[in-house]
Amino acid sequence: MPYIPNTDQNRQAMLKRIGVKSFDELVADIPTEIRLKAELKLPRALSEMEAVKEIKSLAGQNNPASSLISFLGGGSYDHYIPAAIDHILLRSEFYTAYTPYQAEVSQGTLQAIWEFQSLITALTGMDSANASMYDGATALSEAGVLACNHTKRKQLIVARTVNPAYRQVLATYAGGAGIEVTEIGFKDGVTDLEALKKAVGPNTAGVLVQHPNFFGHLEQMDEISGLAHQAGALLAVSVDPISLGILKTPGEYGADIVTGEGQPLGMPTSLGGPYLGLFAVKTNLLRLMPGRLVGLTTDAKGQEGAVLTLQTREQHIRREKATSNICSNEALCALAAAVYLSLMGRSGIKQVAELCLQKSHYLSQKLKPSFSAPFFKEFVIQPKQPVVKLLEELKKDGILGGLDLEKFYPELKGHLMLAVTEKRTKEELDLLASKITV
Fold this sequence. Notes:
Elements: H1 8-18, H2 23-26, H3 48-59, E1 69-70, H4 83-89, H5 92-95, H6 107-124, E2 128-129, H7 136-151, E3 155-159, H8 164-177, E4 180-184, E5 186-187, E6 190-191, H9 193-199, E7 204-211, H10 221-230, E8 234-239, E9 257-261, E10 277-281, E11 294-298, E12 304-308, H11 331-367, E13 378-381, H12 387-396, E14 399-400, E15 403-404, E16 416-419, H13 426-434
Parallel strand pairs: 1-14, 3-4, 3-7, 7-8, 8-9
Antiparallel strand pairs: 2-10, 5-6, 9-10, 11-12, 13-16, 15-16
Helix pairs in contact: 4-11, 6-11, 7-8, 11-13
């Protein structure tokens, strides 16, 4: 957009067109007591050339993320993104495409979504996946609502080892729907099975866990699955999709609903979004699945085509029949995930997962984890240095040194969570270890 300021003549022409004589008359309905009385303290006006130079100077003060060594995690991870992903995403037919309401003019977008759904189904070991949710938090929350709709019960049990942000979103969902949410504590970094066993009952609609959990540890999913199903409840699990390169699929340990954050599948950390909610179910839950679902069909001539199908949102069916008010999907992010999974293939995803596992365990041997439970690519330590001061010092050395857990878990004051992806080199791991005293 060109830099075009308004002249006094421009302003008078606009006021005349609006039908008032002055700016004061235009804002006459705004109470005088809340109007700004003083003038704004603005710098002198700049020409377009001067303004561009000033903005570039300000932008130059930023440190590009690529120049920092990141050990941050907790739901957003610094994985390598193949160059082909951006090349495909920025094609105009994908980048500018809007909601695929009209199948006859949206075949490219619909087919890409269908491929994404198929890939997520294969990755999770489930029967069906939707076109995506907003993010991992809304996906898990929608799983809780689905469990209540299916079982006609009103209690959800969620592990405290689930991402704290996800639990906050779940609480918001549950509050409006009259759903009771019970949180289960943890021992040694994983869900307390004895506490879970006592909490599950005849009113429990679903048990919601994260695997690997927020601390990076592996939950005892076979046992949790058994406890949920013995009570007639559904098991909903939030996964790190990269971990499925080496871990059992949720379908193998009996999950009814699989959700997750798709950001590791070809998306940058990007200051928190936009991200990609994954959602997959067993066949018996297909008609309760929220959001969009793309299916393949044939037309009157026998030609194959993609369409939106089995819609459960209020734009398509009677409002009282709707299972969710989520009415969109993250199509461009889903495309990124589909391209990533296609490029990597089964062996590539496995290799990335193995590198994360090996490198994180190499670092853990130098830093003494706080919990002994098995972990994937994240673990918790308790450094002798104050965490806030340590993170400040690491940042000076170009290192994003992990997540301070006190703000999420007050009982873990003084604890730091580190995430290690395939991008981290031995030199970077050794450098971090040399700056932390445990």
